[in-house]
Design a protein that fits this description.
Largest sheet: 14 strands, mixed
CATH topology of the largest domain: Diaminopimelate Epimerase, Chain A, domain 1
CATH architecture of the largest domain: Roll
Radius of gyration: 16 Å
Shape: globular
Strand content: 35-45%
Number of helices: 4
CATH superfamily of the largest domain: Diaminopimelate Epimerase, Chain A, domain 1
Order of helices and strands: EEHEEEHEEEEHEEHEEE
Structural class: alpha+beta
Length: about 210
């Protein structure tokens, strides 16, 4: 069996919740894309990361059904695990930093695969949403406190891979931050927390707490 770590990324203030992430620290044990895809499908996490160079931070990201050029919670989790200043993804070089209990990455909105950002009038409406039909990746959100930048969100990938709802999605949070042009404090899923902040020249920081599950 291939060795891998399991992290929870974007944990809540008390360390609970967060989106599970699988990380294979030695990507050389599964060098072929087809084998990596099959292993990611077997694990069943929303994303699994294969580390191809731990010192340079070269990584390869997979959902259970497809390879991603960039994704938020895998980058935050892997940056925390490797404790590196940057990650090299197919989309581009992702900056990374540790700041107390938070790990931050810096990335660009154009790296994010298509998402539908759908605003609702109240957080209660977001809470009550059923899982929508497959086919469209939906990030449903509403203001909890617009003046303070506090947001309630849920994420529905719309894929036929067993992941009906993502507990925490950094890439969608990045897109929302880029659209609104302001820092956000997002409560997603059952209690995960994502922090974001626009940066100069089209960059956006996304941060959260990471816990090593096993």
């Amino acid at each position: 069996m291939t060795d891998y770590d399991v992290l929870r990324v974007f944990c809540g203030p008390r360390g609970g919740y967060g989106n599970e992430l699988g990380v294979v620290r030695d990507g050389s044990v599964l060098p072929e894309r087809d084998d990596r895809q099959a292993f990611a499908a077997k694990l069943g996490f929303s994303e699994t990361v294969f580390v191809d160079d731990p010192e340079r931070g070269v990584i390869d990201i997979y959902t259970p059904t497809l390879r991603l050029p960039f994704a938020g919670h895998p980058c935050v989790g892997t940056a925390w695990l490797l404790d590196v200043p940057e990650l090299v993804t197919p989309a581009g070089v992702v900056g990374a930093r540790q700041d107390g209990e938070f790990c931050w990455i810096e990335a660009r909105a154009e790296w994010v695969p298509p998402r539908t950002l759908r605003q609702y009038a109240t957080a209660a409406e977001v809470d009550d949403l059923p899982v929508p039909p497959k086919g469209e990746w939906i990030y449903a959100w509403a203001w909890l406190d617009e003046a303070a930048g506090r947001v309630r969100a849920r994420a529905f990938p719309g894929r036929d891979d067993g992941i009906d709802e993502d507990e925490a999605t950094g890439a969608a949070a990045l897109l929302l931050t880029d659209r609104l042009g302001r820092a956000l404090n997002i409560t997603q899923g059952t209690g995960s927390q994502i922090l974001t902040a626009p940066q100069p020249e089209g960059w956006t920081e996304v941060g959260g707490r990471v816990h090593l599950e096993r």
